[in-house]
Design goal:
This protein is of the alpha/beta class and 299 residues long. It contains ten helices and ten strands. 34% of the residues lie in helices and 14% in strands. The strands form two sheets. The chain has a seven-stranded parallel β-sheet with strand order 1-10-9-8-2-3-4, sandwiched between helices.
């Protein structure tokens, strides 16, 4: 399998799409029903999980793990799991925000026909959006063995890691979008990873798509089906820097379907959109829902 080179940053070129604070384009899109939502890290910032590329994004202080580094180096895996072990507490403590709840309500009302998320935090599902949400980049609550391919729950792994590291005293900083934290190297050196409980020796990896790793083909195909069946595409909180999400924006635009982006800042998909709205997502989506006659459910 040929893996793509990680794309961590992107610089805009050409004439920028004028931004607007008016929600009219999003309201029109949602009111017509049949819209597919593509969400990114910006949707979860109001739940306390930082995005990658915003004004205080994680990439300004943190380089995420790449697939090649993870599989090539036992030390890289130790570093990842030490940091992720502490970060998991922050991820499990995060709760859906108003934006997640509005998306769930719009899905229940039929205005939203499907949801594709680039996030790995499970907050769409926690807000009540049906389980058929497509986790484009996987989910942190699952773990896969790279040898025997067995899947297991993150909760089971966390119990084993806690037992193996009873005296681990690392102190966590704030959690990153990929579920780990910044951690002093001396703390990393004291951490003990564990092997697969099924085969006994296999390397465990969170069931998420690392930078430089391909999204499984079946998942990509399902996203293409959703976009092809949709009337329009609504992007929420994504810079669309990585091709895994951008390709669906391109696909919708090439099919002549309206694309509206709600994001704080310029995106790589602006050229394909009819409008880019700059507004806090929770407030903006609440207003969109109100204007189409849908009330968001409480957490």
């Amino acid at each position: 399998m040929v893996r793509t080179r990680p794309t961590l940053t992107w610089e805009p070129t050409g004439e920028a799409l004028p931004r607007t604070s008016s929600l009219d384009a999003a309201v029109d899109l949602v009111a017509d029903e049949g819209v597919v939502v593509l969400s990114g890290a910006g949707l979860s910032t109001e739940s306390g999980i930082p995005d990658y590329r915003g004004a205080s994004g994680a990439l300004r202080r943190h380089t995420p793990m790449t697939y090649d580094d993870f599989v090539a180096s036992a030390e890289a895996r130790r570093r990842y799991w030490a940091r992720s072990h502490l970060g998991w507490r922050g991820m499990t403590g995060a709760r859906p925000n108003d934006g997640h709840r509005v998306v769930a309500a719009l899905r229940a009302s039929g205005h939203v026909a499907g949801v594709i998320t680039q996030n790995v935090d499970g907050l769409h599902q926690a807000a009540g959006t049906p389980p058929e949400v497509v986790d484009l980049h996987g989910s942190l609550d699952r773990v896969i063995c790279l040898s025997c391919r067995a899947l297991s729950s993150r909760g089971d792994l966390e119990r084993r890691l806690t037992e193996a590291n009873a005296t681990f005293d690392g102190v966590a900083a704030r959690v990153n979008p990929d579920g780990d934290v910044d951690l002093a190297e001396e703390a990393v050196e004291r951490f003990r990873p564990v092997d697969c409980a099924d085969c006994g020796t296999g390397v465990l990896k969170p069931d998420v798509v690392f930078f430089g790793e391909n999204v499984p083909k079946a998942r990509v195909d399902r996203c293409r089906e959703l976009v092809d069946e949709a009337k329009a595409l609504l992007v929420l909180g994504s810079s669309l820097t990585v091709m895994s999400g951008l390709r669906f924006v391109r696909r919708a635009a090439e099919a002549g379907k309206p694309v509206v982006i709600v994001n704080q800042g310029v995106t790589r998909g602006d050229r394909y959109a009819g409008a880019r709205i700059e507004a806090p997502l929770g407030v903006a989506l609440g207003e969109v829902a109100r204007r189409v006659g849908v009330g968001a459910t409480a957490a």
